Protein: Transporter
Organism: Desulfomicrobium orale DSM 12838
Amino acid sequence: MNMPRPADHGRIVAGSDDCLNPLQLHELEEEFRRWTGASKRADVTAARKRVLLIFLLIRHTGAKLHEVLALNPDVDIDHERLMVSFGRRGGEQVRSVPLAGPLAREILALAAEVDFRKGATLHVDPAFVRRKFYERALACGFPKNLGSPEMIRKSRGVELMQSNMPLPAVQVYLGHSSPNLTSAYVSFSQREIQAITASFLERESARRTSARNSFFGKITRIRHSDIQALVELTTPDGHVVSSIITQESLNILGLQKGRLAAVEVKASWLSLEKSDTEPLSSAENRIPGHIARVTCGGLTTECAVAIGTGTVLCALVTTESARRLDLRQGDRIWAVFSCHAAVVRVD
């Protein structure tokens, strides 16, 4: 296997140490909900619901504060298409961001409860919004700067990158002025980016505790046999991931070269090989990277393996194996798995 050339995409974030992780984002979101329902005065509750609505839009769309404050809920939130459109006012290019179903319903309910004048925007004094965001962060025990609208937007970007959403889709999602829809390996159309984003958000909304790794990209090769077929998917970072499926499944899924797809692998099916060079292995998929984090437990150890531009895989190994391999943060590592362990999914 050839190692992919470094892709000069530019990072959305420098790292995740200076922003909220997904668990902290969830804790902050629950704190906003608790705070919203804590007042017994109707006028105070209404004002807090407006702030909660602003928070949810920033947290789940990665929008800038001024974009959210300029929203007209009657016009800019499409609950049939599950879309919110930013930039209709202020001379900016209109940007539409998909919403997951449950979030769209919650936003619809909040917008209906808050007393908006017909045609009015969501505008609230930005200084007031920032102050309330800081207060809720402090209530969670976080540094107040991590509760700023800008840091919540950044945290959302990191969350998406660490969940392996393709970088071009994250750039479009966050409204970067010049998103790079083409890598050295795979290019995406605007329609494909929208499909990737909508699919990802729905899966994110429905996700439970099963630890799965997802590789997003395009099918670049299919090798047919009498009963089975080998499907190869190329990611934007140039990793080629192979999966064996039946010919019947190939036909049912409508797989063909150039189609968007994802390959999923359970964390427990990833093996780790500590080596500076590609290991000798019968497993078809051998992905180079480095250990970003090691979390040891009594029986199992979780290793986060960074393999590309913001892409991180989760591998579960026995703690005994982790000690035997002396796995440490920063170590050069290979994530290895069989093509029979890789599941192809399309939407």
Summary: The chain has eleven helices and 13 strands. Residues 20 and 26 are 9 Å apart (CA to CA). Residues 266-337 form a domain with the OB fold (Dihydrolipoamide Acetyltransferase, E2P) fold (CATH 2.40.50.100). Residues 1-16 have pLDDT under 50 and may be disordered.
